[in-house]
Amino acid sequence: MADEALAGSRLVFAVRDNGIGADVSGIDLRTRLTADEVAQISAAIARYRVLFFHDQKIDTAQQIAIGRQFGELEIHQLARKGRGRAIQPDPRWPELVVVESTPDNPAVAEVWHSDVSFRAMPSLGSLLRMTHKPHSGGDTLWADMAAAYEGLDDRTRHLVDDAVAIHDWPGFRRDWPQDPESLAELAALQAEFPPVEHPVIRTHPVTGERLIYVNAPFTMRIKGMSEGESQRTLAHLFVQADNPDYHVRLRWEPGDIAFWDNRGTQHSVSNDVVGHRRLERVTIIGDRPF
After folding, report:
1. What is the model's pTM?
2. CB-CB contact of 257 with 73 (8 Å)
3. What is the Cα Rg of the chain in Å?
4. Which of 195, 208, 270, 278 is the most exposed place for a label (fewest CB within 10 A)?
5. From 115, 168, 256, 261, the catalytic residue
């Protein structure tokens, strides 16, 4: 690790291996962030992709307030309670998503993904806070998708550099209740969130880097390609996130908070949870990928 700090700042960033991820010290998140600290953290998530704050003794209301300092918060209308669902709503806090796995209802998002890429304006980033640590397992991994793009061969880059993909949310429709009220709700959501087009290779709005912006749960096909070519190309792009050279891992402890850049990363959860794992997430709305 290498420690980096800005002159005159109390924030210190201990950069993880592979150049992705940094452990942040010198800050107590119970104290409202200054404008300079918001700017420093915003720049740091663009640079390091994910920041880790440890032993933070904040509650849900404070987490939401911190998120609001970075932008308008997203309300995840598709988060629903149900067996096998990794994210669920909390009726007390519309901006909050609960990420939970229990022995009776094990659920983790183990497939690499970028959150809500099916939205016209996907997430800028999320703050995820552990509230209940399992007996073992359940680490979260992030992959640097700019590094993944740099690792592509020239032929693949030429094929996808200007390509456009269709994103949708079939996983959330699976096992949707079939009663009339639920079906009417589903129809309204499908009208609000129709399939959208995003570049296969997007440009990071802060750093200017090119990065892979397709993921298995939400990317359906690449426009202008045959079905077979689209499937083969997407499969090749999806597995780029598997490369450990692009990864950083967090072994969670209570009080840990991860703040990641959803524009430049994908993430996955290790599917080896033993016991009760619970986290709370707030998400900042981003802009349209280009």
Report:
1. 0.94
2. no
3. 19
4. 208
5. 115
Which residue do the tokens 């990317």 mark? 219
Give the C-alpha separation, 267 to 108, whole Å. 12
Catalytic residue, candidates 85, 113, 198, 263: 113
pLDDT computed for residue 3 by the predictor? 67
pLDDT score recorded for residue 5: 61
pLDDT grade, residue 177 (50/70/90)?
Answer: confident
Sign of CA dihedral 171, 175, 176, 178: positive
Q: Is 267 a catalytic residue?
A: yes
The structural architecture, per CATH, of the domain 1-290 is: 4-Layer Sandwich (3.60)
Domain boundaries, the chain: 1-290
What lies within 8 Å, CB to CB, of 148 at 6+ separation is 211, 212, 240, 241, 243, 246
Summarize the confidence of residues 240-265 as an average pLDDT.
97
Q: Closest by alpha carbon to 35, among 11, 70, 8, 74?
A: 70
Percent of the chain clearing pLDDT 90 (strictly above): 86
Instruction: Give the rounded percent of residues in the chain with a pLDDT score beyond 70.
Output: 96
Among the listed residues 221, 263, 267, 277, the single catalytic one is 267
C-alpha span between 253 and 86 (Å, rounded)? 19
115 among known catalytic residues: yes
